[in-house]
Amino acid sequence: xxxxxxxxxxxxxxxxxxNNNESHIAFKEGPWFGQFKNGSNPWMARYVYGLIFLxxxxxxxxxxxxxxxxxxxxxxxxxxxxxxxxxxAEGVLRVSLGCFAFYFVMxxxxxxxxxxYNCRDTWHSGWWSVKIGLWIALTATAFLVPTFIIQIYGxxxxxxxxxxxxxxxxxxISFITWLNDCCQPDKTEDKCHIHVxxxxxxxxxxxxxxxIMMYVWYAxxxxxxxxxxxxxxxxxxxxxxxxxxxxxxxxxxxxxxxxMGLYIVFICWCAIRSEPAGENCIRKAEASNxxxxxxxxSFIVAxxxxxxxxxxxxxxxxxxxxxxxxPVGDAVPYGYGFFHFVFATGAMYFAMLLIGWNTHHIIKKWxxxxxxxxxxxxxxxxxxxxxxxxxxxxxxxxxxxxxQTNESA
Length: 409
Description:
The protein is mostly helical. About 70% of the residues lie in helices and about 0% in strands.
């Protein structure tokens, strides 16, 4: 009897678990609205979080550029000091604080989630009316806190934005390394060598063309010493990465330094583009002083690129792991805690872009990430990217030599 009872209990438990899994599978295979309503698809949930993040970006931009016309009632708030404390750069920080608080709450409530079909997985993938209401409430509350708290948050946001750039940097290098490993499997070796050479050649050609164009656009005169230094040093760093990668003791191939070259050329271009308008070394700087369709398109592209970068970095929860592993069984498809942590630091990052990394800097309408502080942040990020990449190449050689020395001793 006891054996029969135990067997029936186990069968009931396995049956209930099977029915639970089948219901989740049915939800995931159903229409997208059903998946959204029932919170059964964490892959779809990430897009909703991305849309919330995009809405915060747009709200921060609207408060900065059109706050006095679009939100005149803010001037009556006690903490706004006639609009000065809730509009402009401080208004951006208040929206950023609300967005950061929302994703930080989500980080605390989902960190450590390892399996699907539990309450924290449901909270991450569902309960959208509650979470959207929470986001709105936290954003509204940010406009009620005293000014000195916003100033403290602005200082902390500099550090948080730096953390975001570091995480994004590691994610990019991890992706480049993964792509290089995928292009060099054991099978069909000859065919893969051709693909690697074509990709590497294309990458180096684009790097050279990009550097030449930067010399033409941003260093038209010999007196443009700073821009010449930025561009020339980028070329030197590409040569350095290639030399170290091709060293016999490293032997990392030619593809990864080519892709890293594309990355640092892009960062260098963004850094020089961040220089304030009106500089003699920026060709057509006079035209950049007025808002035209090209300025608006550049702003929209930069804003979307920042949102996409945050989104893509957030789902790469394995970029800090030595060995990437695919989720098995009912394991979560990506780290929920890491995902929300990246978005929380991304909230600080978009605030720094919209105020030019300076709370006292006046930003022109339809501009993003403009100012000398922004320029140097980009340049330091470029140099740091090269240092991290070179360390990833050299570290295994150094560790191997140290191990051999210890064994011989």
